[in-house]
Amino acid sequence: MNSPPRIVVGISGASGAVLGIRALEVLREHGIETHLVISKSGRATIAQETDYSIADVTSLATKSYSDNDVGAAISSGSFRIDGMLVAPCSVKTLSGIANSYDENLLVRAADVTMKERRRLVLLLRETPLHAGHIRLMAQATESGAIVMPPMPAFYTRPQTVQDIIDHCVYRALDLLGVHVEKIERWSGWKSFDHRDPMLPRLGG
Fold first, then answer.
1. From 63, 90, 112, 191, which residue has the greatest number of CB atoms within 10 Å?
2. CA distances from residue 84 to 118, 131, 159 in whole angstroms, order as listed
3. Residue ranges of domains in the chain
4. Residues marked as binding?
5. Could you say which of 3.20.20.140, 3.40.50.1950, 3.40.50.2300, 3.40.50.720 is the CATH number of the domain covering 6-175?
6. Tell me: the pLDDT tens digits for 114-152?
7. pTM
């Protein structure tokens, strides 16, 4: 018997809490079971950046956990999940994941996701990057994580901030095997005047 899809969502203290919140909304719309953990700094960022209360956010998940509960179900590889999304992912959380420093449930759940060879997507929110950040991204990638900075796609011609948020979240969920029909996908160059010398030459 196939069990329903199950995704862990982590919200850390980086700017961009709305990314994790929107992911929870979309996953709920698709009937996917979600397990949520918010770091202490993540709670502060939600209060700073959004009009959501913590109760509003936790109500979007099937089940939520305290970040201090390192004995929670999602801390064990025997608890079956289909993948984990950390949105947003702070550099501190990235560092914990890259170095397997499981001091809280968010990092522990991510570490377990990698050791069980399940998909882990990290929406790293930091810019500009120094060499230490880049090394941490490489370490996490070598251990199996997918580092996906939430970069806007301009080929979709976004009209609002919400358009940018949605496309980023949809792409992240794509990587977890959750395909959102509303996503606008690249379908090739639009028609243009090939005689314009300022446009790229095709086929040569």
1. 90
2. 8, 26, 29
3. 6-175
4. 13-15, 39, 90-93, 125, 155, 171
5. 3.40.50.1950
6. 999 999 999 999 999 999 999 999 999 999 999 999 999
7. 0.91
Query: What sign does the CA torsion over 168, 59, 70, 12 have?
Result: positive
Q: Which residues sit in the known binding site for FMN?
A: 13-15, 39, 90-93, 125
Three-state secondary-structure class, residue 83: strand
Please report, in range form, the residues annotated as the binding site for dimethylallyl phosphate: 155, 171
Residue 124: name the closest of 115, 136, 113 by CA: 136
| Distance in angstroms (rounded) separating the CA atoms of residues 98 and 52 | 30
pLDDT per residue as tens digits for the range 20-34: 999 999 999 999 999
